């Protein structure tokens, strides 16, 4: 006997796979963000993916999604279900469900009740039952939590009158909710995020910034790695557009907002957006004469310039960052600058200078008891050792990084340390340990969509599978890593991946493909990535001798 079940939404992984099969280009994180905006609704995603693939300007790039709205096509295909459902309500009920659409997250009965204009509790409950039966409002009976489908929410919110007044009322409601005693999961922050959402909706941008800074930033960025949530929240402070300054009173707050937004773009694999935003922060700090913010912004800017292979510009900005730190006698920001210079010099193949800079920074961070900065230095030292093929040293440094990351419980640092443990064990030939740590790194990485490390992890999985003689799976991992690196313009990672693919095809006696990848690796590494350049030249020489 078959039971009929309405498919209300696709599984997250299935939705990403569907978009990729349709020919949509984008990272897992980008596609997931778009699908979430439509509640993973199958028909909406089918219509939207078709619009993107047929786009003449972007040629199937997920970036085209902002131009399209499948709702006008969705409505007739579903027999005007949204319009008919909404118009079938009387004005009072229309106003009610439009007010409910102002909530950002699922809501409990008490929160919904603040919009009870229907008199008695019995009459109010009858309205809720009617909306649930019509399919306009969802109710989880077990938790008694209510929610609207994202498509329904957007439709009703577009018809909400007095948006600012509604958000002000909701802000007052959520402001009265006590702070949670412990924050162990992102969901524990839901009332604060809801308060922030309504504070912005009420037009109180400065209060919203204070709320984000005091109660959300540290938890979302450092503890949970909720980068997409941060992007969504901070974008709301730019009602005039992200090419303009956020609508905040003080320049120091504007600068911090720009840096926080850009950092989350960076972690999400959007280096170009990050660089543009950091550059606005640099210009703002420069004009206002704030040397501390200038040192921070220049250092952040350099980090993303390294990602896309602009090593000369990155080094120049790091030197300038150190100069500004020295000008205000800030040992900590000076140490951060030297730490980043140390990391950059390793990619340039200047390993002795790199170690000197990193050890110098580590000594100061140790003296100042700044554990996270110590952790980052240990990861840079581990990367440096991997670049010199010193597996034993790389492993010892990665172990120290993992220990500190565990103390601080900062997800990004945990992921990077796990990846480095896997890479070091792989280089040593301990394949079982490599598998364990790389699996942990990739699982955690994809849970928060930390795109910046994903190509590195996938590449080491490719190397692992190659050593295990699972060639087909090795190629699949390498191609997936390359797709992300190409998408995000990660030039250094592109060089590493093409080098692996050159060796892969050389092993298979496919000299034409091996040479093709070797030449691309060489071209990518010519930005100043010396270890990868030497590797590419070595592989190309092997090919010529065949």
Could you walk me through the main structural features you see in this protein, from its secondary elements to its overall organization?
This protein has 546 residues and is mainly α. Among the domains are: 12-78, no CATH class; 450-546, Serine Threonine Protein Phosphatase 5, Tetratricopeptide repeat. 71% of the residues lie in helices and 1% in strands. The protein has 28 helices and three strands. The chain has a three-stranded antiparallel β-sheet with strand order 1-3-2. A hairpin with a 4-residue loop joins β2 and β3. α6 packs across α9 (150-157), α10 runs antiparallel to α11 and α16 (291-307) packs antiparallel against α17. The longest helix is centred in the middle third of the chain and has 19 residues, at 205-223. The protein is globular and about 85 Å long. The protein starts with 11 loop residues before the first helix and ends with a helix.
Brief synopsis:
With 546 residues, the protein is an all-alpha fold. The chain is 71% helix and 1% strand. The chain has a 3-stranded antiparallel beta sheet with strand order 1-3-2.
